[in-house]
Each structure stands twice: as structure tokens, then as C-alpha cells.
Amino acid sequence: MIPARLEPLLRADSAAGQLAALFRAAGHELALVGGSVRDAILARPIDDLDFTTDARPNRIKEIVRPWAHDLYLAGQRFGTIGAIRDGRVHEITTYRAEVYANDSRKPDVTYSDDITEDLGRRDFTINAMALRLDGAGSAELLDPYGGAVDLAQKTLRTPLDPAISFGDDPLRMLRLFRFLATLGFAPTVEVLAAVSSMAERLEIVAAERIRVEMSKLMLGEHVADALWGLVETGLADQFLPELADLQLQQDPQQRHKDVLAHSIAVVAKTSPILELRLAALLHDIGKPATRAFTPGGVTFHHHEVVGAKMARRRMRELRFSSQETRDVGSLVFLHMRPHTFKMGWTDSAVRRYVRDAGPLLDLLNELVRCDITTRNEKRARAIQRGIDELEERIAELRSREELDALRPPIDGHQVMAHLGIEPGPRVGEAMRMLLEHRIEHGPYSEEEAYRLLDEWEGK
Predict the structure, then answer these.
(1) Once rounded to an integer, what is the mean pLDDT over residues 209-227?
(2) Which single residue of 42, 112, 296, 350 could bond 95 by disulfide (Cβ 3.0 to 4.6 Å)?
(3) Rounded distance between C-alpha atoms, residue 366 and residue 360, angstroms
């Protein structure tokens, strides 16, 4: 039986139907497999259709070449051929059983002629279902490992022994928590025990692959449960060891929870935006390094400065993009800034805050709001009022002047012409002086800028 959501996609005149007819005519099987089958049963959006076949990669190319507008061969080494038609890539993979060598970051792929063996080598039973296509719009559901039952029971279980599944591809241990985060499904006791005993195996997985799974995990609705699972099984220690360190740091302002519990609570409150959630997770990682004991209690002075450096270093190691790394580092660095203005927000303070936050302003304000997890209602209300006041002051100042592109009224060329100097450090120094005046005193005229330059040059 074909899930109703898939019926239009599998008609004889659809891409899937046409491919199935081509493979059948060539004497080979073709089946729709994996996430699209799972998501169709769950009535979730379907992004891509992935196929599996008994045909070997070279044979796949022969079959689809007349049909495809182009071929995408980046995955050929792992048995995957991409057939591009009408701007879409249809990935077709040979039945396989893949096993990592003990010291390898890439799987050694062996092929199979049996779809049941192929499904058994997949990560979880909910992804080990297939629809064998007949090319005429009909299909046979194959579910040899009970994936449909696990879908109904919201359970994450491996088709074979979890030690075999995670040994085949250790990244599946992280993918387990990604599905927990995105689907809300619960891993079995046996699966969790396998992760705990095999966590160190993740070290052979490339950082880029870890980054992809972690990014998807962070955007899940059940992200807090997934993060706790990563820490409790020890898997986080393999790529984000700073998290476990936070359990030892008691925050004097968050006495009801340790810093890790606080950080995960902050993540759960934020919008599902990758940079925001990563910043929420990492915003206090500088606390262990800055903890100091004083007669008044424990302090973490400048933890945001140390934490920003740590966050950027960790994100570079996980191969996040330069922009993502800069953004998360900036959010961590700035997250304490609003708390330093307890006496009210002057115009210059608002300008400086907006300038430093730049395009991250809205994300920064949300992070600061979500950082309030104290049970002290009076203190929580006071902090929220402070942020309300800040946002009101930003709106008020924005209505009177250009606030989102703070710059002096003249540029570097005008500075050089007025002072009669060549390009060099002096130009940058002059522009910084003019920008500082803009921040401190608000908009001013070109005439005033030239007057300031003359005073500055005369010093």
C-alpha cells in the first residue's frame, strides 16, 4: 500500500514512475527508500526522493543517461549516482553494506543484491522501509525490521544490533539524537547503552559530517532532550567537551541549576535559528575558565570574552562557515552588554550597542531575553524591563536619526583631500575619530566634520 502523500509522486508519468520503468526494462529493481517513506507515513513535508537498486553504479549510469539531463557523480565512490532532470537531483544508490575500517574516516563500501540486507544496514528501523516500484504507479511496501511499528510507537531502534549499526557508521550515534530533536522519538535502552559504550568511535568521523548533523539537531523542536542525551551518553565529549565542563560550575545567579542546565534551558527558549541556538548553547562556556571565589561568592568576570574565543575556536574545528563562526562569537561576546547599563540607556550607549550588534541586533536581544531562567520572579521582571527599555530607546532613536548605518558625514577620500594626506593609517585613525563623535553626539554636518579634522590634526 502506498502512503497517500506519495501517490502523486509515484504515478507512471512522474519522475519516479519513469525511472522505475527504465530500471524494470533493464532487468533491475528500483525502490523508494529512507526518509521520504518515513515522512510520508508521518504526514511530514517530503523534501527529496531517494532510490535504491540492485544495479551497480556503472549500470545505473547506463540506464539513466538517456533520461537525465545531466549526471551528478560526487557520490559514485559510495555507490550513489545523481540523475538530474528538470533541475532536480534524483539520487540512486546500489544496495550496499558499508563498514568502516577501524582507523578510517570514510566507509569501505561493498555492494549487495538483496534489498533486505541493504535495509538492515541503514541507521534506524524508521528509515529502513522501502517502496518497491513497478513502473506503473504501484508499489510494494517492504518493512522487514518493523519500522512502521516503531513509527507508531515513536521509537528509535536500529535494524540490527546497535553495535553493528554504529560500527558501520559511528555518525549514526549523533544522528540518533538529531532524530530525537526533530521527531521527538525516544531511543531504546539498548541503543543508548551502545552509544555510551561506543562514543569514542565518533573520533574517526570527519568534522564536516558532525557539523551537518549537529546543525540539524540544534533546529529541532525537542533540542533540549537531545542535548541532554549527548551529554549523558558521553557523545558530546567527542566533539563539544566544553558542555560537560559546565555541569561543575554553579552559577550564583542561577542557584536552582548548574550552568549546563541553564544553557540548555536557554537553547530551548530560543527561535530555531542556527546561529542563535549555537550562541545560546555556548554563551557561558567561558565560565569554567573565569570562575573565581570571593567573600561574596563565586564570580565569572569577563566570561563572555573568554567564551567568545572558545566558541569561535570550537566552531572552526567543526568546520562551520566563517560567517557562522563570526556571528556566534559576536553573540557570545555581546550577550552581557545589556546588563552593564543598569543606570539607563543614554543616546550614545544605544548607538554603540546598535553599532556593535550590527545585523545581529534582533538575535542578540532575543538571546538576552532567553538568558533569563531564574526562578526569582522579581529579578526576572527587572531584567525584562531593562531589555524593554533598551528596545524602546532603540526605536525612539531610530525614529530621529539613521541608526542602522552609523557613519560620519564624510568618507576617507574627503578626509585625505582635506588633510592633504595619502592612504595609510592616519586616514583610518581620522575616520575612527569622526565615527566616535557620531556615536557620542549624534548626526552632524560636513562642516562640523572638517572642523573636527582640523582640531584633531592640530593636536
Answers:
(1) 98
(2) 112
(3) 10
- What is d(CA 335, CA 300) in angstroms, rounded to the nearest whole number? 14
Domain topology for 154-239: Hydrophobic Seed Protein (1.10.110)
- Per the prediction, the chain carries an average pLDDT of 90
| pLDDT for res 247 | 83
Q: How far is CA 458 from CA 249, 417, 430, 437, 452, in A?
A: 53, 16, 12, 17, 10
Q: Which of 273, 270, 275, 305 is nearest to 287 (CA)?
A: 305
pLDDT at residue 384 in the model? 83
3-class DSSP assignment, residue 335: coil
Rounded Cα distance, 344 and 172, in Å:
50
Neighbouring-strand partners of residue 32: 51, 131
Domain limits, CATH 1.10.110.30, in the chain: 154-239
Q: How many CB atoms lie within 10 A of CB 304?
A: 22
| Residue 263 Cα distances to 12, 54, 280, 298, 436, angstroms | 51, 48, 6, 18, 35
The H-or-E segment that residue 208 falls in is: helix 207-218
- Residue ranges of the chain that CATH labels 3.30.460.10: 4-153
Contacts of 427 (CB under 8 A, 6+ apart): 412, 415, 416, 421
C-alpha cell recorded at residue 82: 545523481
Cβ–Cβ < 8 Å for 37, 131: yes
CATH of the structural domain 4-153, one choice from 3.30.460.10, 3.20.20.140, 2.40.30.30, 2.30.110.10: 3.30.460.10
Tell me how far apart the alpha carbons of residues 362 and 37 are, in angstroms, rounded to a whole number.
38
